[in-house]
Specification:
Number of helices: 5
Helix content: over 70%
Number of domains: 1
Distance between the termini: 15 Å
Order of helices and strands: HHHHH
């Protein structure tokens, strides 16, 4: 049997470092795209596309930081309530990463790699969080 608490904590620990790298790289890439690609995609005529990208990125940063904080707090203290609040935050976070991966106006190849790694970490965390909550809600058996 897999220790869901340990696996979930390891994934959260890895994702806390990867999220910092992901946030820095995505912000730098978006700034680079907004400076270099303005002429090609007529962003000056329609600046809402660029504003929407920045809005999704800032929202993703806030949601992901809250999700990781709640998940770490619940996992380290072996309580299920913070983890239960962390699990629903995974869905908007996944949608934000999917926006950066699919629906953004210009997506670079390196962004495919960053976003795919982020999505795989989020999916694994979601799976182990559900397993952790299920084991915490069960009555203990003393066999």
């Amino acid at each position: 049997m897999v220790n869901a608490s340990l696996a979930y904590e390891i994934l959260l620990y890895i994702n806390s470092f990867y999220f910092g790298l992901f946030a820095t790289c995505e912000l730098g890439t978006l700034i680079l795209k907004s400076v270099l690609i303005i002429e090609k995609y007529d962003i000056e005529k329609n600046p809402t596309k660029l504003g929407q990208d920045y809005g999704v990125l800032v929202g993703l940063f806030i949601i992901e930081a809250a999700r990781l904080t709640l998940g770490r707090r619940g996992s380290l203290s072996e309580r299920d309530k913070p983890v239960m609040f962390s699990v629903p935050l995974t869905l908007p976070s996944i949608v934000g990463v999917l926006y950066l991966l699919i629906w953004q106006e210009v997506v670079l190849r390196i962004e495919y790699i960053w976003c795919t790694l982020m999505l795989s970490l989020q999916m694994l965390e979601f799976m182990f969080a559900v397993m952790f909550i299920a084991t915490m809600c069960k009555d203990p058996s003393y066999d």
